[in-house]
From TrEMBL:
<keyword id="KW-0238">DNA-binding</keyword>
<dbReference type="Pfam" id="PF03221">
    <property type="entry name" value="HTH_Tnp_Tc5"/>
</dbReference>
<protein>
    <recommendedName>
        <fullName>HTH CENPB-type domain-containing protein</fullName>
    </recommendedName>
</protein>
<dbReference type="InterPro" id="IPR006600">
    <property type="entry name" value="HTH_CenpB_DNA-bd_dom"/>
</dbReference>
<dbReference type="GO" id="GO:0003677">
    <property type="term" value="F:DNA binding"/>
</dbReference>
<feature type="domain" description="HTH CENPB-type">
    <location>
        <begin position="1"/>
        <end position="37"/>
    </location>
</feature>
Amino acid sequence: MRSKSEQFASALGNQDFKASTNWLNGFKDGNGISFKAVCGESGAVNIQAADEWRKHLKEIIQEKKQKNIFNVDETGRFYKCIPNKILAFKREACSG
């Protein structure tokens, strides 16, 4: 957020703006944003989008050789890739 804020300021002609930690904290507080731990699963899933993805995935799989298809979502290989905290509005439930 700090980097993007500095880019916006520069684009608006403010070359001296520095998005310090204090500035970021003030921005988050002023806009009701907090850094929350993600827990649980969301019940608000777009069923139509999920169904479309399944159809698309079947097409992708058909184009590949079976020996080159792996399922690693439950293996722990990507455990460091998924953030355990996200920026969210303070009043929002935070689920993943």
